[in-house]
């Protein structure tokens, strides 16, 4: 794992090429630490074609310049800010593309055939990465390999969609957020972001951590609310925001590996604490296992709760 130091905070970077060699156990441990203690991290050597990622960014930037920029700067929000007025709006120009279970990319206004084809190729590769990452998370959580995928699935699998956003130059950054403070509602978020312009910040231990622009097309990952629920609070979603800047227009291509709309979400039973037992029964077990691992005691109490013989 590489560590990027930003204002005395170290952002985890997980090298996926280490998963197939002698450093697999160490890398899995570092991934678990990043999910457990941070809720956000970067992934390098992720398997997605980096030339394709560069092409996606270039084409999205061109689409914004040709079809969205003028409309943004003519908006009421921009007019109000020029008069020193603020609002609850976010200083962004964005649109959302659904990929799975049903694609709407052909319905995006003014989108070119070349951009459709390029995005489809990128999303196909990214979906494979999302599934691999979710399987690794399951392994670290002690769940069956495809537990997250199955839990997120409707009749046609999990949902998969991309928010494409540009955060334009802002003349009064002290008055506006690019995106206000929030956690993400979904599952696993995979961000392809600008390699020059900063702005993204995550809250950790009461401090805002600036996320540097992504060099060499690393993928920035954060976990959402549904993964926190499924993991029974172990992998928490993190509060984040986007700050505006006077110089530079930041690009954000955030793809969401989410539950299907009709997926029923609940904590994985394996991750729940035991419940419904009498304290005297726990004390009896404790008397013979006091100097052992408490996790084993919890597991034994859960088995008794479920009526299993121990």
TrEMBL record:
Keywords recorded for this protein, A-Z: Iron, Metal-binding, Oxidoreductase
Record domain Fe2OG dioxygenase: where: 158-259
Family: Belongs to the iron/ascorbate-dependent oxidoreductase family.
Name of the protein in question: Fe2OG dioxygenase domain-containing protein
């Amino acid at each position: 794992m590489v560590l990027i130091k930003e204002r005395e905070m170290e952002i985890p970077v997980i090298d996926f090429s280490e998963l197939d060699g002698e450093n697999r156990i160490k890398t899995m441990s570092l991934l678990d630490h990043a999910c457990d203690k941070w809720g956000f991290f970067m992934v390098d050597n992720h398997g997605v074609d980096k030339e394709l990622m560069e092409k996606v960014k270039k084409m999205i930037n061109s689409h914004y310049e040709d079809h969205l920029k003028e409309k943004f700067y003519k908006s009421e929000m921009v007019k109000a800010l020029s008069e020193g007025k603020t609002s609850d709006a976010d200083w962004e120009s964005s649109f959302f593309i659904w990929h799975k279970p049903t694609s709407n990319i052909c319905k995006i206004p003014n989108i070119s055939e070349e951009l459709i084809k390029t995005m489809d190729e990128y999303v196909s590769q990214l979906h494979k990465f999302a599934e691999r990452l979710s399987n690794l998370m399951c392994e670290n959580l002690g769940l069956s390999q495809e537990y997250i995928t199955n839990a997120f699935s409707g009749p046609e699998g999990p949902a998969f969609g991309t928010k494409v956003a540009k955060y334009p130059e802002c003349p009064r950054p002290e008055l506006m957020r690019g995106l206000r403070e929030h956690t993400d509602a979904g599952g696993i978020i995979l961000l392809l972001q600008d390699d020059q312009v900063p702005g993204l910040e995550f809250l950790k231990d009461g401090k805002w951590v600036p996320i540097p622009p992504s060099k060499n097309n690393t993928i920035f990952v954060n976990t959402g609310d549904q993964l926190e629920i499924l993991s029974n609070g172990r992998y928490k979603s993190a509060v984040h925001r986007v700050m505006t800047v006077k110089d530079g227009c930041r690009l954000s291509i955030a793809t969401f590996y989410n539950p299907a709309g009709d997926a029923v979400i609940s904590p994985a039973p394996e991750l729940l604490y035991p419940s419904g037992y009498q304290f005297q029964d726990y004390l009896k077990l404790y008397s013979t296992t006091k100097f052992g691992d408490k996790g084993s005691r919890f597991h034994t109490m859960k088995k008794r709760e479920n009526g299993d013989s121990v």
